Each structure stands twice: as C-alpha cells, then as structure tokens.
Amino acid sequence: MANVSVYNMEGNEVGTMELNDAVFGVKVNEHLVHMAVVAQLANKRQGTQKAKTRAEVSGGGKKPWRQKGTGHARQGSTRAPQWTGGGVVFAPTPRDYTIRLNKKEKRAALKSALTSRVQENKFIVLDELKMDEIKTKKFKNVLDNLKVSKALVVVGADSDNVVLSARNIPTVKTAYVNTINVYDILKYNTVVATKAAVASIEEVYA
Questions:
Q1: What are residue 92's phi and psi, to 5 degrees?
Q2: What pTM does this model have?
Q3: I want to staple 150 with a disulfide (CB 3.0 to 4.6 A). Which of 28, 60, 102, 189 is the partner?
Q4: For the segment 18-66, what is each residue's pLDDT rounded down to a tens digit?
C-alpha cells in the first residue's frame, strides 16, 4: 500500500496514512481516462444549435430571372446559399452528444485518475478541514500553508463553511466524495482531501 503524509491546516506533517491499493494503487488505464474525460465534456453540450437550410427559409419559390440572355449567372432561387437571406449549406441541427460509459469503466477511470495523482505526489491528505465561519481569507491561508494554488479540494459531509469559503477562489474547486470526477481530478494540479474523505472514497470504490 502507498503511504502518504498527513498534514494539518497549518501545513505541518502530523503523521502518515496508508492508501488502499484497490483505489489508489491500480494500473493506470490512460485510454479509459481519456474516454471518461471526452464523455464528460460531450455530455455537457446542450446540442440545441440550429440554423435553417434553403428548404426552411421563407421565399424563393420563383426563378429570379430567365435562364439565358440576361448577362447574369443562372439562378434558380433567391434562397440559395449565395443569396442574402438564403439558407445555410450544411446547417447544424439539434442533436444528442451523449457518450455513455458503463459503471465498471467509470469506476476504473476514476481509480486510474486518483492513482496517477498519488504517483505524481500531487495528492495531499489533511487530518481535518473545518471552519467556524465562512471566510475566504482563512481558506486561502490553508492553501498557502500547504503550498498549493490550483487544487481540487475533496471534503466530507458537514463542510458547508469550507465549500462557501472556497467558492470565490477561481483556481480552487471543492467537491464532496459523491461528486468527484475524472475531469476535475486531472484539471487541477493537486488533489487535497481530508482523512474522512479518503476513507469514504475507499469505502465507495474499493
């Protein structure tokens, strides 16, 4: 099992923790990780883009002038794409961008992402992360103590003050154990998790 240092909110090392290899020590499957990221980004798309083709714009039923003898190029409709007010050639239409991964693939991708962060020494464990009041400055001080700037902070239950204190920091995102995902784990340079959150992750995904 991998051993990681445990820090307090002042940035001091207060012990070590063994991570479960079933979650934090798996073989990294880069292909699955890539599929998970692509799926997540694709599933965010609304797919509601729409433009009208020449069949859908109004007008254009009559041939604008006779075929020959005018000196103009031949034209069949004023709603052809080259005319002002004409239709779009390959107009986008509403579509579903959803990409589906099965449950095993999602779990394997998440484990691979977490393992990669542990292997790169970008996984920090805190003994606890509690705040008596909503204060962005105090939360920022905790990150400075840990020498972390761009981070995904994973917290356990009853961490509303922590979440609200972090929401105004653009380089930080907070997540509960049941909302972590592959894209966020890879997007942020460091994953910071409390001991309680790590225990919950191991309980859910081991």
A1: -70, 145
A2: 0.82
A3: 189
A4: 999 999 999 999 999 999 999 999 999 999 999 999 999 998 889 999 9
